[in-house]
Amino acid sequence: MFAVCAVCAVAAGAAVFWVDSMARATFALLASFVFTGVVILLIELSYLGVLVILMMTMEMLVMVVFMVMYMMNPAGLMPMTMVHNNRVALVISGGTFVALVAGIEVVPWPARGGEPPPLPAAELGAAVMESHMLVMMVVAMALFATMVASVVLATDRGRYDRYGDGLDRRVPDDPIRGGVGR
Amino acid sequence: MTDAAVPGGPAAWAAGGDGVAAAAVWPVLVAPMVLAVFGYGAAAGTAVLRRHVSGVAAVGGLVAPARETVRLLVTQRRTVPGADALLWRLGGAIVPVAAVLAVLVIPVGGRAVSDLSVGVVWFNAMEVLVWAGLWLAGWGANSVWGMAGGYRFLVQGLSYELPHMFALTTAALGAGSLRVSEIVAAQQEQVWFAVVMPVALAVYLVSALAMAFWGPFDQAVGRDIAGGVTAELSGVDLLLARAGRYLLLAAVAAMAVPLFLGGGAGPWLSGWAWSLVKAAVVLALLVWAGHRLPTVRMDRFTEVGWVVLLPATLLQALLVACLILLGWG
């Protein structure tokens, strides 16, 4: 079961670069993630495994919209290819693979000292929420600020467009009316 | 509060890895059949309501789904030039499969096919597969109606999914577990979660309608775009998509029972009977609501989802969390 899912995950991952449609490429990638999720389930990390399936399904469905929109295959009308600049790409990917494998083989890995705690998830949670709480909160604020800033930078309409130059319009002037009467 | 009562806590993690294989074989066969009966009931109920409105003898609606099934089974299926057949057929088939996989964790009378330690997350993951199903069915047909319907459903999904997740989270929070049977047990010790978290239940029911692209959230298959996702489907593909929709509606209705309505708790009848009766009542409510309410445009609903439902579910979760800290449970 493990081997089947592992091979299928790799095969679906390879199919991403084999197919000639962005929709197929995206869903091949999703299939690869789902097989990976099953593999994670099989090593008894049930929460993580199901979460991978859940999050990746949603993510790929959002991604497919943008991929189809931005990539060279609008509306799927013409075949496209996921691989470009093949020779250099082959050299780079082959070199990376060799370097990583060499790293794994050459580095003298230290022997394991001590035993894993009985509840590693709880230990991790305690570490994140206790001693590293400040770091995590700063990281969270930075991430949140980045999201807000990128949305503000991306939108072309500000409050003066919506509420008028004096900000005195009672109902904002939006191109699409929302559902709560604004 | 015991160690096991931490949401997604160590006990839930440590107990992971329980799989379908561990359960007996017969529930695997019975669960889809029960789901099919409920799905047929929903379809028949819809047919009866529609006939009642149009003034035809309503009783005929009871056999209408069976007749329609036979008709679709013997219909030659159309094809469309330039269709991506693989994605197209796959899309329609994913919907019923996701519904069946979702009910595996729903306990009936204290027994689920597989009482996973992360049952709530599993249920959520399976219902999100429907997003893929609808988009694929809409895209693969190489039809503008199908594609518009698929995109409509994605917008709708992004509007209902977060409030829906927080509604599920609130139920899990109340029990301190992602295991569905422990959520039921927590309600039997204390009180039905419908009482302490009515907002979460309401949001769950709204998102259940949206998830099953059932009225008033049926714009993905709307008549204004010639059936949207189902516009080009025919024959057995259309049967799968339509049946899948009723199965999905039945599955989400059934999940409301262990999450909010006390599972199999109730006087006189046995646990499994109460589970089924409650699920049937919720399903009837959803079918009736979808029949009565006018279609909501999802660009309107998006704002409702993010500005009203999401803060409401967050406040509900906060309230439940405070109750737990104050010693309830």
From TrEMBL, chain B:
Pfam families: NADHdh (PF00146). It is found in: Cell membrane; Membrane. The chain crosses the membrane at residues 20-43, 86-108, 128-154, 191-214, 246-266, 272-291, 303-328. Keywords: Membrane, NAD, Transmembrane, Transmembrane helix. InterPro entries: NADH_UbQ_OxRdtase_su1/FPO (IPR001694). The keyword NAD applies. This is NADH-quinone oxidoreductase subunit H. Coiled coil: none annotated. Belongs to the complex I subunit 1 family. It comes from the Bacteria. The lineage of its organism: Bacteria, Bacillati, Actinomycetota, Actinomycetes, Streptosporangiales. PANTHER family: NADH DEHYDROGENASE SUBUNIT 1, NADH-UBIQUINONE OXIDOREDUCTASE CHAIN 1. It is a multi-pass membrane protein.
